[in-house]
Amino acid sequence: MATNIRTANDTDTVLRTEGLNVYYGNFLAVSNVWLDVPRNQAVAFIGPSGCGKSTILRCYNRLNDLIETFRAEGNVIYQGHNLYAPNVDPVEVRRRIGMVFQRPNPFPKSIYDNIAWGAKINGFKGNMDQLVESSLKKAALWDEVKDKLRQNGLSLSGGQQQRLCIARAIAVQPDVILMDEPCSALDPISTLRVEELIHQLKEQYTIIIVTHNMQQASRVADKTAFFNVQTSEKGGRTGYLVEYDRTEKIFQDPQQESTKEYISGKFG
Amino acid sequence: MSSLAQGSQASAKSRSEVDKNLDRGFIWITKLFAIAIAVILVWISIQVALQAMPAIQQFGVGFLFETDWNPVVNEYGVLPQVYGTLFSSLIGLLISVPLGVGAAILLSEDFLPGKVKIVLVFMVELLAAIPSVVYGVWGLFVLVPLLTNVGKGLNATLGFIPFFSTTPTGPNMLVAGIILAIMTLPIITAISRDALNSVPPSLRQASLGLGATRWETILQVLVPAAFSGIVSAVMLALGRAMGETMAVTMLIGNSNNISPSLFSPANTISSLLANQFAEASGLQVGALMYAALVLFFLTFIVNVLAELIVMRVKRI
Amino acid sequence: MPSNLSDSSGNSSGYTMGSLVRSPSAPRTMFNSIMTGVAFFCGAVAIFTLAAVLSYILYRGFGSISPRVFTELPPLPFGPSQGGFGNAILGTFIMVLIGAFISIPVGVLAAIYLTEFSSGNLARWIRFATNILSGVPSIIAGVFAYGVVVLTLNKLGWGSYSAVGGGFALSILMLPIIVRTTDESLQLVSNDLRQAAVGVGATKFQTVASVVLPAAVPAIVTGATLAVARAAGETAPLLFTALFSSGWPSLTPQGLLQPTASLAVLVYNYAISPYEKWKSLAWAASLVLVLMVLIASIIARFATRRKAY
User: Fold this and answer.
1) What one-character-per-residue DSSP string does C118-158 give?
2) Closest residue to C5, CB basis, from A79, A119, A204
3) Quick check: A124 contacting B, CB < 8 Å?
4) Edge-to-edge, what's the strand order for the sheet holding A81-82?
């Protein structure tokens, strides 16, 4: 059982996960996660395939609701509310907890509209040009696209598209940005640029990033959570949180045996 | 080399000659039949044009703008029928496009459980399978009485509006338009549904992830992304509506006049053909063929446009 | 922790932050619910219309259906015999068969060419032409068949309006459906099969005939069923080619060159006639047509569900 570690600079918790169990129908996909995400830091979820890291991530913005058989037990506390309380509006949750996906998925609209649209439907009343510019600047994309804002977003390269998706997420001014393996479809150079971006974004937002790449976690994250998967007698695979601590601690002095083995590449 | 080997070599050689010729002949025949399709299309236009020649020579382009259709004095003009074809199809589409796209959204998004969706999709397909003449019969006995009552009421109260300016007395433009709406609904629904289903699911997730509501996602992201598919659906439906014969013939009133009123009887090119052909002779046949040529031309243009849209989308 | 938080940077953001709790009266939420209602309404209209048409046909036609309907000839408008439309059923059957005889071989072979032996421009144009052909109004197909068959037969002195002409017109309408469904089903056959056949030394003909075609047969049959169902319901082209007849069609060459009755034309002629006997036959015939089409569609649906590939 993992203990929920709060470290010295975790002054403020943005997301508190209490005993989260995820079911698909009767099948327990992830069991008993306790995890506090501190404000303005980057937390990485690492672990082998099937350990439920993306599933937990998608619990935070209620995107798992799209799956018919999905059911969550336990609490995810954000701003004093349990995100899974019956009277909470998932649309409002997703406004505050944004997401960047594994494969870049800009809308088939212009670069400008990709960013402006999200702001518009969320009721933005200010200066749209300014918002688009500042979002693109924060995503380190402004210089590359400032002369072609009316071009279709799909005309950009993969790395640029992903940064456009980050700018799009930022434009609605979320609290938390969830990133589901954001670099796995990108080339190494674009990957590095996105990683640099995460360091800058931390100042304003809280980042939770799922990654298959341990080195990426060690480069980018302040805290790291290691998940593993357990096979039951019937063959079902259930994910669970093994260890959660400051990144240096996880990588240099892991407490759990399985963490040690994963870090040293023995499996995964 | 032994004679056995020589013999089998010789027979092996002749067998592969046979095989090669079979192959060549087979490919040749399939190619012939494939090209035949294009040939048939061209042949149809030539054939109809040939049969229309006497009338084309006699009336020229004026045929399209004259309003009298008089076999007795051999004066023919097809404008009322063109008007009827276009107006009835327009009414049909005005009804079936919103309904069809709405139904397509219902059946492509997750408003309903999967099994229910499959059944409903099938039922919409059934609408397309019902023969035109059956729709005509149903329309005659169900729609016409129903709409005559409604129409009389509308004419009494809102008769000053041009669309309601005459009293309905049986088959008319509106009934024909409504039956065309019913008959084009399955096309719009099926093709729009396909177009919506082809939108990558990641777009939906991206939109919802930004905090959009379900319908904001549907109307502002998914439908625009599926737009060309929906447009091609509308064009195909238009082509179908313009060419539709039996149901329209039985429900439009077969009166060669142009009137803005929905309740006045009218005529379409296909109805004209269906009604008059059997007893036509002489120049009247040529005139009917000329009308058929006009109809062929109209539907040809619409279908080509629809195909071009589809091909352009596939290339992206 | 405060329950209404402004954004983390604390400056004026241009956004007004609502609360996390769902408010069903907010304009965005209400719009969402209303639109869902609209979508359900659209679906309901479609289903309701289908139910209205089918139930009415069933209601009117059921009373008139009886065995004699399949075995007797159309009656005189006045007089004792109730009659039937056995000749029309047979006529439809014959003409659809003629249509299938023409369109299935041509369509399947053409589709084989498109999928197996060609690529690039020619295939693209032929597929384009097929789609345009499928949009040609059925009455134009009738006019075309009139020119090609009826007039020619007339010139040759062999007759004029005929079952052959009707069958030919129907084949024009069936052809694009056959080509399109065969094309799609051949494309679905895995390339591994083709390569395996070529690998053991099969010729192109053998590969197609013994390996590819059998694999695609269920889907081809489905396409043929749909084409047949459509052809059986067509009226307009038959008005130009086969007209109608009150007698039995005969399966001799002379018989096939005579005007022939069909279910669709019978419905058209009798439904708008003033005679009660004829009208009730028209309802019965409509019911038979609709049932034929329904059964064909259901079979086609089931066949594609159980595709082997």
Assistant:
1) --THHHHHHHHHHHHHHTS-HHHHHHHHIIIIIHHHHHHTS
2) A79
3) no
4) A81-82, A70-78, A13-24, A27-38, A237-246, A223-231, A42-46, A206-210, A176-180, A97-100
Residue in C with minimal Cα distance to A14: C1
Report field, pTM of the whole predicted structure over 0.90: no
Residue of C22, C125, C139 to mutate, testing the B interface (most B Cβ within 10 Å of its Cβ): C139
The Cα of A173 is separated from the nearest Cα of chain C by a number of Å equal to: 7
Contact B111, B215 (CB under 8 A): no
Size of interface B-C (CB pairs under 8 A): 264
Q: What is the pLDDT along chain C (309 residues), one digit of tens a residue?
A: 333 333 444 345 677 766 766 666 778 888 999 999 999 999 999 999 999 999 999 998 888 888 888 888 888 877 777 788 888 999 999 999 999 999 999 999 999 999 888 878 888 899 999 999 999 999 999 999 998 998 888 888 888 888 999 999 999 999 999 999 999 889 888 888 888 888 888 888 888 888 888 888 888 888 899 899 889 999 999 988 988 888 888 888 878 888 888 999 999 999 988 888 888 889 999 999 999 888 888 888 776 664 433
Contact C9 A204 (CB under 8 A): yes
Q: Is residue A42 part of a domain?
A: yes
Domain that holds residue A250: 2-263
* Alpha carbon distance B27, C288 (integer Å): 42
Neighboring chain B residues of C133 at a CB cutoff of 8 Å: 37, 40-41
- Beta-carbon pairs below 8 A across chains A and C: 61
Look-up of token digits 């907010």? C26
- Which residues, including other chains, have CB under 8 Å from residue B69's CB and lie 6 or more apart? B75, B76, B77, B78, B80, B81, B256, B272, B287
3-class SS at A45?
A: strand
Say whether residue C89 is in contact with chain B using an 8 A CB cutoff.
no
Q: What is the pLDDT of residues A204-246, one digit of tens each?
A: 999 999 999 999 999 999 999 999 998 888 878 899 999 999 9
Exposed/middle/buried for C180, CB within 10 Å: 0-12, 13-18, 19+? Answer: buried
Q: Which residue in C3, C5, C8 has the most chain A C-beta atoms within 10 A of its own C-beta, making it the best mutation to test that interface?
A: C8
- Looking at CA atoms only, how far is residue C15 from chain B in angstroms? 13
Domain of A230, CATH number, reads 3.40.50.300
The arithmetic mean of pLDDT across residues B149-178, rounded, is 87
Neighbours of A110 (CB within 10 A): 18
Q: Is residue A268 part of a domain?
A: no
Q: Give the tens place of pLDDT for each residue, B210-236.
A: 999 999 999 999 999 999 899 999 999
Within a domain: A144:
yes
For B13-25, write each residue's pLDDT tens digit.
Answer: 556 788 888 888 8
* Averaged pLDDT score across all residues of chain A: 91
Is position A137 within any domain?
yes
- Predicted confidence band of residue A268 (pLDDT cuts 50, 70, 90): low
Best of B110, B210, B216, B222 to disrupt the A interface (most A CBs within 10 Å) is B210
- Chain C hits for B114, CB-CB cut-off 8 Å, are none
Range 91-110 of C in CB contact (< 8 A) with B: 105-107, 109-110
Total of domains in chain A: 1
**Chain A contacts of B221, Cβ < 8 Å?**
107
The domains of chain C are located at 68-305
C18 in B contact zone (CB under 8 Å): no
Closest CA to C90 of C242, C223, C290: C242
Q: Which of B38, B214, B239 sits opposite C125 (nearest CB)?
A: B38
Contact between chains at B41 and C129 (C-beta distance less than 8 A)? yes
Query: C68-305 has which fold?
Result: MetI-like fold (1.10.3720)
CA distance C261 to C268: 12
